[in-house]
Every structure is written in structure tokens, then in C-alpha cells.
Design brief:
Elements: H1 2-57, H2 66-80, H3 87-91, H4 97-111, H5 117-146, H6 149-161, H7 163-168, H8 174-188, H9 199-212, H10 216-230, H11 234-261, H12 267-277, H13 291-301, H14 305-315, H15 320-335, H16 348-361, H17 366-386, H18 391-400, E1 413-417, E2 434-437, H19 452-458, H20 460-467, E3 477-481, H21 482-485, H22 489-495, E4 496-503, E5 515-521
Parallel strand pairs: 1-2, 1-3
Antiparallel strand pairs: 3-5, 4-5
Helix pairs in contact: 1-5, 2-4, 4-5, 5-6, 5-8, 6-16, 8-9, 9-11, 10-15, 14-16, 19-20
Length: 522
């Protein structure tokens, strides 16, 4: 009997030892997995930061005027009390929340007496870059929770390869911030299979995107409807999330705008009134309804287009809500006459989900397809970032050197004879010397409406002789595209000499020339 008891005790001890050993192994595996996840997280964060910083400094070209005139120029005026505000700010259709971010940076630089032109230009872009890198990290770990590590890797590869993301994400455009916030919000959105969803977090980020750019609601409308339909407690979702978060966002935005406009201003309402009901956006050009299908979307998604189409056929059922958001956005924007590539930029991360699934499924052809995607996107990224349309930025470096002569007997007086808003302005010069350009506000129904740019281009020589009848009234410097030089050559010969020629683009079009000239008065 005692022998049996001792055997049982010994057996129990053996079992206990085995159990403890198994638990120890499981614990060590979990520990090892946690360590691996932490190492991966650090590597992804460091890689994204370095990648986007390189991205930032390799984008030295201009894209659209809003990159400066709806952000940096406004911030510069807010802090330094001089500069030019476009008609949108006079009519109250732009919100101060986005420029306020950069004005904080400018204020700190001013307080520390480090407000050099170089820092004023690059620090806002670096802030935008850091946010874009953070969105990249979140995008990678979102796909990792939704798909296998292999698919996540190729999806992230597609995302980072995108030439349009490279071209846009580090710019101080409201569209860039809207896309960054959309990418961050997607991380917390309740997608099928997501383990990181949080209604409050994603709705807060969506609200911020709408504050920055009201059209963010177009992209998020189908996603919000999907969440509403899928949620079991719809009343709680509306009363505890949709309404409170939306109300706080609108309230904060309105308070900021009222402070800086100095009166009650509802920017979101004014934006809709001018752009949709009054059709003011049409003034800046209109395109046929199919433009996004035939040009806009193919250009934005670039060489990824075949992968996107293939990926849609593979993952339509699982990610139909993302595809619905892409289609919906393109359809809605197609109904608006004024169209631009950057308007549909926020749906690009959605498209990359399908591209990654497609590329991962190619197996034998995967490496060849990846190389082709990388090579074509890299060529487009470097050309558009370093070569195409750089003259209007480079010329401001030349103009800025004139600040050193502003204390001389003849103060600089620069006239930009270019399509309006072709260049940045005081944010890239940072001294209060006299500068002016040909203005082109839209017709807002006022009786005294004048489009100075159109009047000038009807007869440039007549405009110049009428505007400056005496030599003493002439600007000290003229900045113009080469295509204008022939038309006003007689006026230039009489009064000016060319001092600089700056390359702008290999593809001059209309009033935009291949080079920018600077002329100085005799």
C-alpha cells in the first residue's frame, strides 16, 4: 500500500514537473513572440521615419498653389503680420485650424530668433513628413492584423512604392493631411477581421480630417454608413459617438475660425455655398465627367493599376467596403466640374490593400512584377520630385537674396508677370520688401470685378505701358516665364536686363514656360 502511494506521489511529481515545463515553454514562446513583435515595431518605425525624411528632401518641385497659399502664406501672416491672403480667406471659406499648426512652429522659431527662411520652409514639411511616417506605420500593422505577414509585406511594399504618395505626402497641402488622417483613421475602423478597431478614435481622426478639408466627408460617407449598418447598438453609436464627436469637432473649428476672422464664421457652410451652390470652383477650370476614369485615377494610382484591378477580383468580398469607398469617391467627384488629381489622393491607401493582395498572389511572377513596379514608380518619383516644375520654387531663392539690398537707396520692387499664384510668396522670402503679382479672384457677383491676369495676357505690352508710364514707376525686378519674353521684348530692351534664367519644366504649356527669367531695371 505504501509502495503504491509512493508511486502515485512520484507520478504526480513527474506530471507536475512536465506541466511546469510545458507552461514554461509556452511562456517563453509568448515572451519570444512579444520580443519579436517589439523588434519588428521598432524596425518599421525607424524605417518609415528614414524613408519619409529622404522622401521629404527629394521633393523639391511645386505642385499646386494651395501648397503655399492655403497653408504657409497664411501661417506667415498670422505670426509676422505681413503677407498676402487670397480671396478665400477674405470670404471665410477656409479654416484656420491647419495653418494654425504651422503658425505654432513659426511662433517658436520667432521667439527663439531662429526664424530663418530655410527653417520656415522646411520645418512645416518635416512635421508633415513625421505624420505621414506615423500613418505608414499604422497602415503596415493594420494590414498585418487583417492578412498574413506575407501579404502585409507586399501591401506595404506597394504603399511605399506609390509615386503619387511620394510626390504628395510630405507637402503642406490640406489633401496630404486629409490622406494622413484617413490612413490613421482606417487603423481603428471596424474592417472585417480588424483587431484594432475603436469607434471613438477613428471618428475623432475623421473629424479632424473634415476640419482640415470638409470634402473628407465624401470619402468617409460610405464607411460611416457601413459602420452604422454593422453595429448592433445603432442608437448608442449615434448618441455616444457620431453626434458628440462631430459636435465637438465643429465647435472647436468654429471657435478657432471666429477668433482669427474676428467674427462668427461657419467655414464648412461657406465652403459648400461657394464651391457647390455658386460653382466658384468652376472658375479654376472644368473637365468632362469621365476625367477621373480616363485620366485622374489612372495617373494617381500609376503603374499599380493592373495590380489594383486584379486585386479587386481576388478580394472583392472581404474588402467590398473599401472598394465601395473608392468607387463612391470617384463618382461624386466626377459630378463636380472642377477636377484635380489631388482630390482623390485620400483613397490611394484603400487601393493599396488590393494591390498588395494581387502582388502576393502572383507567386512565380511576384519578383518580376515587384521590380517593374519599383522601377517605374521610382523613375516617376524622382523626375516629378526633383525636375518637373521646380523653377517657380528655385526663383524664390534668387528673390530672397534681394532682401539684403532692401536697406539701400533703391528698395526692391518685384513684379511677377506670371499666371497668378505661380510661386510661393512671403513664406519663402521672409522680409517685407515690396512684391506683387497679377491677381485673379473669381467673379463673386460684385460690380467692380476685374481679373488682372486675364487683362494682362490679352495685351501684355499695352498693360505694361499703361501701368508704368514713367521709368521711375517701373518695378526694380520682373519675374516671368520665357514664353512671355517675345511678346514684351521691346519693353524689356528699353528698361531691363536679364540677370537669371532658371529651368522649370520640360513640358511647357500655355502661359507656363520651360524656364523662369528674372529681369533687373537698368
Amino acid at each position: 500500500m505504501e509502495s503504491l502511494r509512493s508511486r502515485l506521489k512520484f507520478g504526480n511529481k513527474v506530471e507536475d514537473v512536465k506541466l511546469r515545463k510545458r507552461k514554461s515553454q509556452l511562456y517563453s514562446k509568448e515572451n519570444e513572440s512579444d520580443i519579436n513583435d517589439d523588434v519588428l515595431r521598432v524596425r518599421v518605425i525607424v524605417f518609415c521615419l528614414l524613408f519619409r525624411l529622404i522622401n521629404c528632401f527629394l521633393v523639391q518641385t511645386s505642385f499646386v498653389p494651395d501648397e503655399y497659399w492655403q497653408s504657409l502664406e497664411v501661417s506667415h501672416r498670422m505670426v509676422f503680420n505681413y503677407g498676402y491672403l487670397t480671396w478665400e480667406w477674405k470670404e471665410g471659406i477656409r479654416g484656420y485650424a491647419y495653418p494654425l499648426l504651422f503658425s505654432f512652429i513659426y511662433k517658436i522659431l520667432h521667439f527663439l530668433s531662429y526664424d530663418s527662411v530655410l527653417l520656415l520652409i522646411w520645418l512645416p514639411r518635416i512635421i508633415q513628413t513625421l505624420l505621414a511616417a506615423f500613418a505608414d506605420v499604422k497602415f503596415f500593422f493594420l494590414i498585418r492584423t487583417l492578412q498574413s505577414p506575407d501579404i502585409a509585406k507586399w501591401t506595404f511594399f506597394c504603399h511605399l512604392c506609390s509615386w503619387f504618395s511620394w510626390f504628395c505626402c510630405t507637402r503642406t497641402l490640406t489633401n496630404s493631411m486629409e490622406t494622413t488622417l484617413t490612413c490613421l483613421a482606417l487603423f481603428y475602423f471596424p474592417l472585417p477581421g480588424s483587431k484594432t478597431c475603436s469607434s471613438k478614435k477613428y471618428l475623432t481622426l475623421v473629424s479632424l480630417a473634415v476640419i482640415v478639408r470638409p470634402t473628407a466627408l465624401i470619402v468617409w460617407f460610405p464607411l460611416l454608413m457601413y459602420h452604422f449598418c454593422q453595429d448592433e447598438n445603432k442608437l448608442k453609436l449615434i448618441t455616444h459617438n457620431y453626434i458628440p464627436i462631430g459636435a465637438v469637432a465643429v465647435g472647436i473649428s468654429t471657435v478657432i475660425d471666429c477668433i482669427f476672422y474676428g467674427k462668427l464664421t461657419l467655414v464648412q457652410f461657406n465652403f459648400l455655398k461657394f464651391n457647390i451652390f455658386h460653382g466658384v470652383a468652376d472658375f479654376y477650370g472644368s473637365h468632362p465627367w469621365h476625367w477621373y476614369l480616363t485620366q485622374g485615377f489612372p495617373v494617381v494610382i500609376g503603374p499599380h493599376l493592373p495590380l489594383f484591378l486584379h486585386g479587386c477580383s481576388l478580394a472583392f468580398k472581404k474588402y467590398k467596403i473599401l472598394l465601395a469607398a473608392v468607387v463612391w469617391t470617384i463618382i461624386v467627384y466626377s459630378f463636380l466640374p472642377h477636377k484635380e488629381f489631388r482630390f482623390i489622393y485620400p483613397v490611394l491607401p484603400f487601393c493599396m490593400v488590393f494591390c498588395g493582395i494581387s502582388l502576393a498572389s502572383l507567386k512565380a511572377w511576384r519578383c518580376a512584377a515587384a521590380f517593374l513596379i519599383l522601377a517605374t514608380n521610382l523613375a516617376a518619383s524622382l523626375y516629378t520630385g526633383l525636375v518637373h516644375q521646380r523653377g517657380t520654387l528655385d526663383v524664390m531663392s534668387h528673390v530672397q537674396t534681394l532682401c539684403d539690398t532692401s536697406s539701400s537707396s533703391t528698395s526692391p520692387d518685384i513684379l511677377f508677370l506670371m499666371p497668378c499664384h505661380s510661386t510661393p510668396f512671403y513664406s519663402h522670402v521672409h522680409c517685407p520688401m515690396k512684391m506683387r503679382f497679377l491677381e485673379c479672384p473669381p467673379d463673386l457677383g460684385e460690380g467692380s470685378y476685374v481679373d488682372e491676369a486675364d487683362i494682362f495676357y490679352e495685351d501684355p505690352l499695352l498693360w505694361l505701358r499703361t501701368s508704368f508710364p514713367y521709368k521711375s514707376s517701373l518695378p526694380t525686378h520682373l519675374v516671368l516665364f520665357d514664353v512671355l519674353e517675345t511678346e514684351i521684348s521691346a519693353f524689356l530692351r528699353e528698361n531691363y536686363m536679364r540677370t537669371a534664367e532658371i529651368f522649370h519644366t520640360h513640358f511647357p504649356e500655355g502661359r507656363i514656360g520651360g524656364s523662369v527669367f528674372i529681369y533687373e531695371r537698368h
